[in-house]
Amino acid sequence: RFADSTGADIPRWIRKQLATYGDDTASIKAFGHEVIIKLCERLIAGGAPSLHFYTMNNTEPTRQLVTDLGLA
Predict the structure, then answer these.
(1) Is 33 in contact with 69 (CB distance < 8 Å)?
(2) DSSP 4-71
(3) Residue 3 is inside which H or E element, if any?
(4) CA distances from 69 to 2, 13, 17, 23 (A)
(5) Any residues with CB less than 8 A from the CB of 33 and at least 6 apart, and which?
(6) Residue 43 and residue 46: Cα distance in Å, rounded?
(7) pLDDT at site 1
(8) Which positions ≥6 away from 65 have C-beta within 8 Å?
(9) In the chain, what are the domain boundaries?
(10) Are 58 and 49 spatial neighbours (Cβ–Cβ below 8 Å)?
(11) Contact, 2 vs 8, CB < 8 A?
(12) Are 68 and 53 in contact (CB under 8 A)?
C-alpha cells in the first residue's frame, strides 16, 4: 500500500516472492523483515551515515529491526 500511494516501484523479484505467500501475513512480514535487514546491512557496510524509517504509527517492527541489526 505504501508503495502504491507513493508511486514507488517494487523490484520484480520481491513482487514474485510476495505472490507466493498469498494471504499469509506472517510469512509476508517475515520476508519483508529479512529483505530490510539485508538492505540495511548493505547500507551500513557501504558507509551510510544514518538510517531513517517510516513507522506508519507501528513502531514494533522498527524496534525489532534495530535490535536485529545490533543497533539497540
Answers:
(1) no
(2) HHHTPPPPHHHHHHHHTTTT-HHHHHHHHHHHHHHHHHHHHHTT-S------TT-HHHHHHHHHHTT-
(3) helix 2-6
(4) 23, 23, 23, 27
(5) 61, 64, 65, 68
(6) 5
(7) 62
(8) 33, 36, 37, 40, 53
(9) 2-68
(10) no
(11) yes
(12) no
Q: What pLDDT tens digit does each residue of the chain (72 aa) get?
A: 667 777 888 999 999 999 999 999 999 999 999 999 999 999 999 999 999 998 989 999 999 999 999 998
Handedness of CA 8, 31, 66, 61 (dihedral sign): positive
58 touches 1 (CB < 8 A): no
Give the dihedral sign, CA 53/40/66/68: positive
Q: Which cell is 24 given?
A: 499469509
